[in-house]
Design a protein that fits this description.
0% strand, DNA-binding, homodimer, mainly alpha, Tetracycline Repressor, domain 2
Chain lengths: 183, 183
DNA sequence: TCCTGATGAGACATTCATGTCTCATGTGGG
DNA sequence: CCCACATGAGACATGAATGTCTCATCAGGA
C-alpha cells in the first residue's frame, strides 16, 4: 500500500513544529502509522529531518517563484513573498532552530540559493532607491527569517491573529514602528 | 573552595548559547570543573536551565532599569533598551528556544513582567504619537525578541558585524527597510 | 482462490545522557 | 601539624530513544 510519504512528511512537520523534541513514536502516531513503517520510510530521525529540510527548501523555492521577486516594486515583491511563505513559516522556524545543531556539517546548499534570492530582492530595492542602504541585504534577510519565526510562534501562542501575520511582518520589516510623516 | 557559581553559570550560558544540546559533561568541562561538582551545584540539567533562565531574567530586568524606558522619547528609550540588552541577546535566544520545550509548565513569571515593561514602552510610544498604532505592542515585543535572536545568531555566524548589532536592530525595528521621505 | 508484499505489534539489543555513589587527593583553616 | 571539606575521577545503575528483527495479519492483484 505504499505509505503516502508526503502525508507522513507533512504530519511530521505539523507535529515537530509544535514539539521539536517529539519521539519517532509520536511522529509515527501523528501520521497514523506504526513506528516500524515510519522507520522503513525514513531510516532514522536525521533522515526525517533532512527530508523535512528538503520539503522546507522546496516550499520556499516555490513561494519565491510565485512571489515573482523581479516584478514591480521591491516592496510589493516583499509583501508577496511573505504572503507566499506564510504557510511554511512554522516549518521554517523549526528548521531554523534545528540548523543550529548541524554545527560541523555543511548546510544544505538549497538554503544558500534561497538566501541569495531573498538578498537579491533587498538589493534590488536598494538599487531602485526604494530601500535604505544602511541596512545590509544580508541583515534584512536574517531579520526576515527572525520575524517569520517570531510571527509563527506568536500566532501559535495566540498572541497575534493569524490573519494579521503578513501585515504585521511586512509592515514592521518595511515600515518599522515609527509613524511616517507622509505616506 | 566553594566553586564560583556565577562563573559556572556564565560558562554554561556561553556554551549552551552556541550548542544548545551540549552535555552536562561538556558544560562541566567548559566551566573547568568536573561533572560531579557541576552536579553538586545544579542537581540536573533542568535546574541548570532554570538557573540560566533566572540569570536571563535578571539581566533583562537590569537592562530595562538602565534603559530608563519612561524617560525621553520612546524611540530613544527603545534604542537604549536594545543597547543594554545586547550583551544578553545570545542568552535570550537560547532561552527563547528552550521555552518552547516547557510546554505544559507555566513559564516563569519574570518573563511576564519583562514583556509587560517592554510592551508598555511601545504603548507609550503610540500614546505619544511617535509609533504607529496598527502594530500592536504585543507584536512589537515579540518582534523585538525575534530580531534580538536573529541578530545574535547572525553575529555569531559572522554575517553581521558585532558593532552594528544595536544599529541594525533598532533601525529595522523602528524605521523599517523603506527609505524615509523625510527624516 | 492463492500468492505477494506491505503493514502493525512487539520483543530485544544498543547507545547515550543522566543520576548516584565511592574513594583518593589536595588545600585551607584551626 | 592535623583535620575537615570540597573536589576530581571514575564506576555503576537507570531511563529513554533508537535501531533491528521476527511474525502474524491483511489487502490487492494474478
Amino acid at each position: 500500500m505504499a505509505v503516502d510519504r508526503d502525508h507522513v512528511l507533512r504530519s511530521a512537520a505539523a507535529l515537530l513544529t509544535r514539539k521539536s523534541t517529539a519521539t519517532m513514536d509520536e511522529v509515527a502516531k501523528a501520521a497514523g502509522i506504526s513506528r516500524a513503517t515510519l522507520h522503513r520510510q525514513f531510516a532514522g530521525r536525521d533522515v526525517l529531518v533532512r527530508a523535512l529540510e528538503a520539503l522546507g527548501i522546496q516550499e520556499c523555492e516555490g513561494a519565491l517563484d510565485r512571489a515573482r521577486p523581479d516584478d514591480g516594486r521591491a516592496s510589493e515583491a516583499v509583501r508577496r513573498m511573505v504572503r507566499e511563505i506564510e504557510p511554511a513559516a512554522a516549518l521554517l522556524a523549526f528548521l531554523y532552530s534545528e540548523n543550529q545543531l548541524f554545527e560541523g556539517e555543511e548546510q544544505n546548499e538549497g538554503w544558500a540559493r534561497i538566501d541569495d534570492r531573498i538578498a537579491a530582492l533587498f538589493r534590488r530595492g536598494q538599487a531602485d532607491g526604494e530601500f535604505r542602504i544602511d541596512l545590509t541585504p544580508a541583515w534584512l534577510t536574517e531579520a526576515l527569517y527572525g520575524l517569520l519565526a517570531s510571527g509563527a510562534w506568536a500566532v501559535a501562542e495566540g498572541r497575534v491573529a493569524r490573519n494579521d501575520f503578513t501585515h504585521m511582518i511586512v509592515e514592521l520589516l518595511l515600515g518599522g514602528a515609527l509613524r511616517r510623516e507622509e505616506s
